[in-house]
């Protein structure tokens, strides 16, 4: 066999090998695409976000804010899924695709938190999910839900990232926000009569999780708030940071300069890094 034939055969083999490698690489890329599925879990509308690679993953719940819906959390959910987490984004009580009657802000927080036990239990036998490696992140009202469940829920999270939020619900008393009554079906109203306002204020006092903050002593906590936030000011997170730090070295409060009541890319990136450090 002359040298030319050998060279041609060699080139042919190289082309085949390259094609096979390229096809394998393409298949791997396809397999690593983030999957997003809308499902009902325990009658709760949920978006599941994950990479379908057959591996069991830590579970992270990402909770939206007041008057918002689960779809608003997709940006963070995608970033977390790319890092190997199984992300569950539920509609809060009376929000999104749900049809419950209107409730006040704090009632919605508590009702949603109380649903988390059943939501998490529903994944107990799901091979995709390790519910014992649990994280929770939430924005604004979703952060309040995060605090409430981390302190009172059956499933103890290893890491939480409440953002532009507060564990000290008492700070909301007297505000228009605390008196807001909402459902996705009927929209927003604000309590006006004295009896309704008194009921709401008492409900806040009874259900604020701050008084039991010591239940967070074994939880990694990342709190992020805007320095210019007047909607949910930082009094509560500073209060918790001061009280919890002596008994929990894994507490971190980050105040974002020049930022109001908003979630920035810097905040979501920090949540992703935090979860990778504490749930992997």
Automatic annotation (TrEMBL):
Keywords from the UniProt entry: Hydrolase
Domain Dienelactone hydrolase, first and last residues per copy: 53-153
GO terms assigned for molecular function: carboxylic ester hydrolase activity
One Pfam assignment: DLH
Superkingdom, taxonomy of origin: Bacteria
Coiled-coil positions: none
InterPro entries: AB_hydrolase_fold, Dienelactn_hydro, FrsA_esterase
SUPFAM superfamilies for this protein: alpha/beta-Hydrolases
Protein name stated in the entry: Alpha/beta fold hydrolase
Organism: Aminipila luticellarii
Organism lineage string: Bacteria, Bacillati, Bacillota, Clostridia, Peptostreptococcales
